[in-house]
From TrEMBL:
Residue positions of motif 'KMSKS' region: 310-314
Highest taxon in the source lineage: Bacteria
Localization per Swiss-Prot or TrEMBL: Cytoplasm
Class of the enzyme per the UniProt entry, highest EC level: ligase
Designated name of the protein: Methionine--tRNA ligase
GO biological process: methionyl-tRNA aminoacylation
Source organism of the structure: Ligilactobacillus hayakitensis DSM 18933 = JCM 14209
Gene transcribed to yield this protein: metG
Alphabetical keyword list: Aminoacyl-tRNA synthetase, ATP-binding, Cytoplasm, Ligase, Nucleotide-binding, Protein biosynthesis, RNA-binding, tRNA-binding
Organism classification: Bacteria, Bacillati, Bacillota, Bacilli, Lactobacillales
Similarity comment text for this entry: Belongs to the class-I aminoacyl-tRNA synthetase family. MetG type 2B subfamily.
């Protein structure tokens, strides 16, 4: 038995200064997609994610909330891990920079580089952004403030955050010592930084102008890893954070390093484009100084933007992944994120685009293909999938060849981590299979017994296409592939991508008797409005108050979890419902029914109205209701029940196994509007 090839993939470790949104989730889902894909190709995968928990910003955030830093990061790390569970992220380890083993590794690495002479003690004076955890030269700032004499007194970092002047003793890393070696590595490994535009940016903006030595420590705060030989210094966030990728595998922790020996160097380290500099300049130089191999690929992906730019709580345009997954399903969220961000570029999220993707790509194209296929196999072949044979109809070979080309193109794009392109290739097969139905017209073939073999071939090819699509979509979607297999009557433990073939559909398969839509169509207007309201209501209403924990005893309605039994509706939808006060004039049982009561009501109409209600078991003596005033929904379209017309609905409250009609004061006139 040959040993599996290893594959090590990492996300950046997330800074827990606030709640993660779908832009943050994009990176982790993208890495999860790649990890799942490699496992399905029989790789030995190790997938790492985690949190970056040190620094002045965390110390100040915890203080503002009346918490200790450790208490604060414990809560935030737990929240992030819970989010990854909801998104079904399959990471093998979650590292925290407050982990004892990691902190020990940081200290050992620092002292090793100090002894080697790559780190030295000096004095730093410069402009520092607490929010970015980063130092800036004057030329790197987006805006500079000066007094009336022209002296610089402050400014803004490229992120828009204010900077402050910092002067203190500091340890520095000799970055310039490794600059030439780093450029040589870039040239020898053209696919080290992906996409290439990121490499050009690093060369032109940071390396060619001259690499400055990197400040590594601070003395003005305490929340971080202490330098063992000089404990008043706290290790600067970037050397602390970056070494997580090897400390997580046991490197320099003083313990077992078998994982490090097995999985390092990383195959893919994926980060957002805003932190490419740290991962493609500082990180490889640290590894060079440690005499360790560099990662094979560092991928700097684009951002998921809104129409008005980056997601921002102050703008009120933040979208949270939990909301999308809970309302529309996790598959819809994962599919959209992987389709919406083209490789190397930014993607733009709009509620309209999301809803349309669900409706057109998932409900219309894929969902409808499954529904039609299962229905036709049941209708024409009693639910049994015919044996797959090639060349029976004039269109079979074209579909088979297209499927084979799809497998090759899909795997090429997935191997290149071009997820959006891979999905494009797969949806071409979905479209081609739908076209095959139109070409072969199975409903027409079913009318001619002489064409039974052609109908068999069409149904078998449709099932084979769906099986292949389900297998290839697995890295992105975590539920739909198995649902497709189950509706086709296929075993869900035989879904490996490695060696997949169009012609592997097993014999004697019985589809489900009645398939269920796996992606119901959405009401575009309603769902767009829902997403927009979810984007804005928290941040615009609460502002900065939402960033602090409410004092014990304070009431904040927007912190309440609303337990709904039905989907939310907009107010304008509810406003269409007419409710009136109605007086019970007569009530009796409906003959032939043990559930229905027949009410004659005065609801202010030109005459009495009749409403039937299935509440007989709760009112064994219904005549007691005569004279009571109840609430009736009066603009429902009349319908027949047990041969009698019902002109509305009576409102009631259910609790446990009890039910009671809602009643109003006898002083309220009949026909009064409820609202």
């Amino acid at each position: 038995m040959t040993e599996k090839s290893t594959f090590y993939i990492t996300t950046p470790i997330y800074y827990p200064s606030g709640r993660l949104h779908i832009g943050n989730s994009y990176t982790t889902i993208a890495c999860d997609v790649l990890a799942r894909y490699k496992r399905l190709q029989d790789f030995d995968v190790f997938f790492l994610t985690g949190t970056d928990e040190h620094g002045l910003k965390i110390e100040e955030k915890a203080e503002s909330l009346g918490m200790k830093p450790q208490q604060y990061v414990d809560k935030m790390a737990a929240d992030i891990q819970e989010l990854w569970k909801k998104l079904e992220i399959t990471n093998d380890k979650f590292i925290r920079t407050t982990d004892e083993a990691h902190q020990k590794a940081v200290q050992n690495i620092f002292e090793k580089l100090l002894a080697k002479g790559d780190i030295y003690l000096g004095k730093y004076e410069g402009w520092y952004s607490v929010s970015d955890e980063e130092y800036f030269t004057e030329s790197q700032l987006a805006e500079v403030y000066r007094d009336e004499n022209g002296k610089m007194i402050g400014g803004k970092a490229p992120s828009g955050h204010e900077v402050e002047l910092v002067a203190e003793d500091c340890y520095f890393f000799k970055m310039s010592k490794y600059a030439d070696r780093l450029v040589e590595y870039y040239n020898a490994h053209p696919d080290f930084i992906i996409p290439e535009t990121r490499k050009n940016e690093m060369l032109n903006n940071f390396i060619k102008p001259g690499l400055e030595d990197l400040a590594l420590t601070r003395t003005s705060f305490n929340w971080g890893v202490k330098v063992p030989s000089n404990p008043k210094h706290v290790v600067y966030v970037w050397i602390d954070a970056l070494t997580n990728y090897i400390s997580a595998l046991g490197y320099q922790t003083g313990g077992d390093e078998s994982l490090f020996n097995r999985y390092w160097p990383a195959d893919v380290q994926m980060v957002g484009k805003e932190i490419v500099r740290f991962h493609t300049i500082y990180w490889p130089i640290i590894l060079m100084a440690l005499d360790l191999p560099l990662p094979k690929h560092i991928i700097g992906h684009g951002w998921l933007l809104m129409k008005d730019g980056k997601m921002s709580k102050s703008k009120g345009n933040v979208v949270y992944p939990e909301m999308i997954a809970e309302r529309y399903g996790l598959d819809a969220l994962r599919y959209y994120l992987m389709r919406a961000v083209p490789f190397g570029n930014d993607g733009i999220f709009t509620p309209e685009d999301f809803v349309n993707r669900v409706n057109f790509d998932l409900a219309n194209d894929l969902g409808n293909l499954l529904n039609r296929t299962v229905a036709m196999i049941n209708k024409y072949r009693d639910g049994k999938v015919p044996a797959l044979q090639s060349g029976v109809t004039a269109f079979d070979k074209t579909l088979e060849d297209f499927a084979a080309q799809t497998i090759t193109a899909y795997q090429e794009q997935m191997d290149a981590v071009h997820f959006s392109n891979a999905l494009d290739e797969l949806w071409k097969l979905v479209a081609r299979t739908n076209k095959y139905i139109d070409e072969t017209e199975p409903w027409a073939l079913a009318k001619d017994d002489a064409k039974a073999d052609q109908l068999d071939s069409v149904l078998a090819h449709l099932a084979a296409s769906l099986r292949l699509i389900a297998i290839l979509i697995q890295p992105v979607m975590t539920h739909a592939p198995k649902q497709i297999f189950e509706q086709l009557g296929l075993p869900t433990d035989q879904m490996d991508i490695k060696g997949v073939s169009y012609f592997d559909f097993p014999a004697d398969v019985q589809v489900v008797a009645k398939g269920q839509p796996i992606f119901p169509r959405l009401d575009v207007e309603e769902e767009v409005e829902f997403i927009k309201s979810s984007m804005t209501k928290n941040e615009k209403a609460k502002g900065r108050k939402n960033m602090a924990k409410a004092k014990e005893g304070d009431f904040d309605p927007e912190e309440t979890t609303l337990n709904l039994t039905k989907k939310e509706i907009r107010f304008d939808k509810f406003e269409k419902v007419e409710m009136k006060v109605a007086e019970v004039k007569e009530v009796s049982r409906v003959e032939g029914s043990d559930k229905l009561l027949k009410f004659r009501l005065d609801a202010g109409d030109d005459g009495d109205r009749q409403i039937l209600s299935g509440i007989a078991k709760f009112y064994p003596n219904p005549e007691e209701l005569v004279g009571k005033k109840v609430i009736a929904v009066t603009n429902l379209q009349p319908r027949k029940m047990m041969g009698q017309v019902s002109q509305g609905m009576l409102l009631s409250a259910e609790y446990g196994d009890q039910l009671q009609l809602l009643m109003v004061s006898e002083n309220i006139p009949n026909g009064s509007i409820i609202g």
